[in-house]
């Protein structure tokens, strides 16, 4: 749709001044900024996946550093997902005030499952943990489950005696 013609000289003057101020800004953005801008199809930068800590050699310090950095990013993403689920549940409770027990149950179950999974992976590691301590926790949990059954179900009895 073409612009309407200015009705009088004052409107024409302000349109001209506006164009003079706007034209260099638009030119810089279209010709310099946008062609040099990295565009990601995501809301955040997507890093390439690096080998995990169990794939690193024991003397490969760079691989340990990359695995630890990736672990920290993954933990931050998982924590943000948990925060979003918690906010959704709290918003549901506030919005569905008297009937929130039945209407927000699916959100609560999803949040509780995500919390359990987060705690299974990152819980009880202490303040200063890294990818190696998390990997050791996972290894010890798998050994426990192999010997005693799933965690939380009690110790399995030996029927072979």
**Number of spatially distinct domains:** 2
Structural class: mainly alpha
- Helix amount, in percent? 55-70%
Determine the mean pLDDT: 88
Discrete helix count: 5
Shape: elongated
Q: How far apart, in Å, are the first and last alpha carbons?
A: 88 Å
The total strand number stands at 0
Which regions are unreliable across 5 or more consecutive residues at pLDDT < 50?
A: none
Largest sheet properties? none
**Element pattern in H and E:** HHHHH
**Rg calc:** 28 Å
Strand content: under 5%
Give a short overview:
62% of the residues lie in helices and 0% in strands. The protein is mainly alpha-helical and 161 residues long.
What does this structure look like?
With 161 residues, the protein is mainly alpha-helical. The chain has two domains: 1-37; 53-148. It contains five helices and no strands. The chain starts with 8 loop residues before the first helix and ends in a 13-residue tail after the last helix.
Name the features.
single chain; 161 residues; mainly alpha; 5 helices; elongated
Secondary-structure map:
Layout: H1 9-33, H2 61-95, H3 100-103, H4 105-122, H5 131-148
InterPro entries: NADH_UbQ_OxRdtase_su10, NDUFB10
Protein name: NADH dehydrogenase [ubiquinone] 1 beta subcomplex subunit 10
Family: Belongs to the complex I NDUFB10 subunit family.
């Amino acid at each position: 749709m073409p612009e309407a013609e200015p009705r009088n000289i004052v409107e024409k003057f302000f349109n001209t001044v506006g164009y003079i101020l706007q034209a260099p800004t638009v030119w810089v953005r279209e010709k310099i900024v946008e062609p040099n801008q990295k565009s990601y199809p995501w809301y955040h930068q997507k890093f390439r996946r690096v080998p995990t800590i169990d794939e690193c050699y024991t003397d490969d310090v760079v691989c340990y550093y990359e695995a630890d950095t990736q672990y920290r990013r993954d933990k931050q993403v998982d924590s943000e997902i948990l925060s979003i689920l918690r906010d959704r549940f709290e918003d549901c409770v506030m919005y569905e005030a008297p009937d929130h027990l039945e209407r927000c149950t699916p959100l609560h179950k999803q949040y509780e499952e995500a919390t359990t999974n987060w705690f299974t992976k990152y819980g009880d590691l202490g303040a200063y943990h890294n990818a190696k301590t998390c990997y050791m926790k996972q290894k010890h949990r798998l050994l426990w489950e192999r010997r005693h059954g799933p965690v939380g179900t009690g110790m399995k009895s030996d029927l072979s005696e």
